[in-house]
Amino acid sequence: MSDVSVRKQRPKFLTLNEIRLPLPGIVSILHRVSGAGLFLMLPFLLMLFGKSLGSEESFAAYKEIVSNPLAKLLLFGLLWAYLHHFCAGIRFLLLDMHQGLELEAARKSARVVLIVSLVLTLIVGVKLW
Known about the structure:
mainly alpha, 3 helical TM bundles of succinate and fumarate reductases, 0% strand, elongated
């Protein structure tokens, strides 16, 4: 027997920009990121909700916070995170029920999730802005 073993050469460094992730994988990662973002921003959203329902002074503070362009941008991003998480969640529920598991159907549903979440974000965001 030979003491020489054949080993597959593995890369020493993982370069994330060279990985070609398919669209369903991107939707899956965005689903996780949007869920984590919504969870982490929950105290901020609850604080805004509390200020909007409190006294007249707290409502004035709420309006001042929400009128800030940076806060509007943050809320717009949270709106997208919610809508994307919702649409992708429906997609994953359908996949759990063995609907759309074929490669082309999975790619199409991932594309639909991205398009629908972006369009809904624009429609709702423009109405609320």
